[in-house]
Design a protein that fits this description.
Elements: E1 18-23, E2 26-29, E3 33-48, E4 55-71, H1 76-87, E5 93-100, E6 108-118, E7 135-142, E8 144-149
Antiparallel strand pairs: 1-2, 1-5, 3-4, 4-7, 5-6, 6-7, 6-8
């Protein structure tokens, strides 16, 4: 039997990993984060060209989008939004996210998301019918991305 198959131990748990945020030049662990997803959405142009019967496609740009859920227990993001209301100036955030599961042999992936702008900023939340922690769901955009480290092939594929 071949040893080149996907091993469950090499898949990543979404609970393993971390994120750091930089706001106004201050870097700290995103202790309040519950869920973070970021992706690139490609802008694809399509055109039928003379002499070719199939429509052709070309990437002409992309957009960074994402979503996050976090516990309502930190005022830094809300204060940045309030500063924008009062001054007209908003400095986007930087988020460094790491996926790394110590059980996996693929190592880690680290990405930097730059000029992150959330679409919602919570200011207050009260609910006498809930015993659950307060969470905030928001979409966000980002203008630039970098790959700081990438996954390796699983050990049984090397």
């Amino acid at each position: 039997m071949s040893d080149t198959y996907t091993k469950l131990s090499d898949t990543l748990s979404s609970k393993e990993g971390s994120a750091y945020i930089t706001i106004n030049g201050r870097n700290r662990k995103m202790f309040e984060i519950s869920k973070l997803e970021a992706q690139l959405e490609l802008t694809i142009n399509d055109k039928e060209m003379l002499g070719h019967r199939m429509k052709q496609h070309k990437i002409v740009g992309c957009e960074g989008t994402g979503s996050m859920t976090y516990y309502f227990m930190n005022s830094e993001m809300a204060n940045a939004a309030i500063d924008y209301v009062n001054s007209g100036h908003f400095e986007g955030f930087t988020i460094m996210a790491t996926n790394e599961d110590p059980q996996s042999t693929v190592g880690k992936s680290e990405v930097g998301l730059y000029n992150v702008i959330p679409k919602k900023f919570p200011l207050a939340h009260l609910d006498d019918s809930s015993d659950d922690p307060i969470t905030v769901d928001t979409d966000f955009t980002f203008d630039s991305v970098s790959s700081l480290s990438s996954f390796n092939l699983p050990a049984n594929y090397r």
